[in-house]
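We modelled the chain as a single entity of 329 amino acids. Its sequence is:
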Amino acid sequence: MKLLIPLCLLTFMYTSLVSAKECGTITIADMNWSSASLIANVDQFILQNGYGCDAELVPGDSNPTSASMIEKGQPDVAPELWTNSLKDALEEGVREKRLRIAGKVLSDGGEEGFWVPKYLVSQYPELATIEGIKKHAKLFENPQDPDSSGIYGCPAGWACQITTENLFKALKLKQAGFTIIDPGSAAGLSGALAKAYERHKPWLGYYWAPTPILGKYEMVKVDFGSGVDEQEFINCTTQADCLNPKVTMYPPGPVYTITTQKLAERAPEAYQYFATRSFTNQDLNQLLAWMEENQADGNDAMYYFLTHYPQIWHKWVPKSVADKVEAAL
């Protein structure tokens, strides 16, 4: 008995094999936090099904992954790398033509600030500003000290503990009656925010994005009225020994997709995909909230994203690639 294979299927199989051979194997770091794992899984599915690459996920984390990419040329891609603490090493890797900074995975950068619930700003619009916060300091009861107002700081030991303390000093919040509340941990900070929000109570504190909590709860970032002074932030706000901090908003955190130079040279179409692909904080906050509510991993979230947000990812790829990804879904 002869096995007859339709000509169209043979053509598809041949085209897929040629495409995979041209693109080759691409190793993608699957980092150990939710947004990075989601993005890695999205990249794998689109590269495999849209570009015909042999895309493989490998375990990763910021420092070891970037070091391995510089020294060994593997993995080929770090989809979400927060580069502030790795700036010097990455710049050296680019100078030595070992790495490429493909593009911003977060189009608006990582976001930090002091936040209040939106329902509170609806009631008191001036609470969107630091002057309004000072004026209504009595609203923000400190559960640890009834004689003062409370602002939730960053967990002890985190880099943001330094910035929040310096900004607390620069904004003269102590003179306005505030003390910093140590949440103890990230869970303690998110728990305090969630508890206040669900009870419709006042809350003021540090938080960052992208995070599930800012996807689940509508919060307003307090305007310090200063704009961003990046040099002040780098040279003083982030330094524990800064004696005279000045007011500045948090600058957007640089969050990039990094590839090896070799990948950019041998698979230019795949590299162009990485250079184009990006998320906004708002979209990623919502996706992370969905992951948390559904106890979903990066693979689950990838299918959810590709099926529910075509208006986002269709912009990253040519129509022919989008059609192949849709067919694979």
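As a brief sanity check on the tokenised model: Residues 7-23 form the longest helix (17 residues). The chain has 16 helices and ten strands.
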